Amino acid sequence: xxxxxxxxxKVKKPGKRGRKPAKIDLKAKLERSRQSARECxxxxxxxxxxxxxxxxxxxxxxxxxxxxxxxxxxxxxxMDQGKIPSEIxxxxxxEEQNKSQQNxxxxxxxxxxxxxxxxx
Length: 120
Known about the structure:
Helices cover 64% and strands 0% of the residues. The protein is an all-alpha fold. The chain has a domain at 26-91.
């Protein structure tokens, strides 16, 4: 059997497959291409603006963390010399006050009776 024949007795034409391209207006095709290029450039510009803002915010965060690290280094050097920085004292006294306030509110919460007390 011949390879050029297909199932229903039709003969295949070598070299020409698929649909013939429709006659597309060249000016319309160029305009679509230009519009697509404009949109692509706009997307690229937005993407770069977003990335620049992201880099800027990360750089600010890095600067803030470096300042915080420098502060902690100063505190450590002061404590190595036997001095307690006033900021640490304030933190410690603030924590002590918070603990004492929490303990006093724990024992007398209004609205809910204490389970362990026998007030019949």
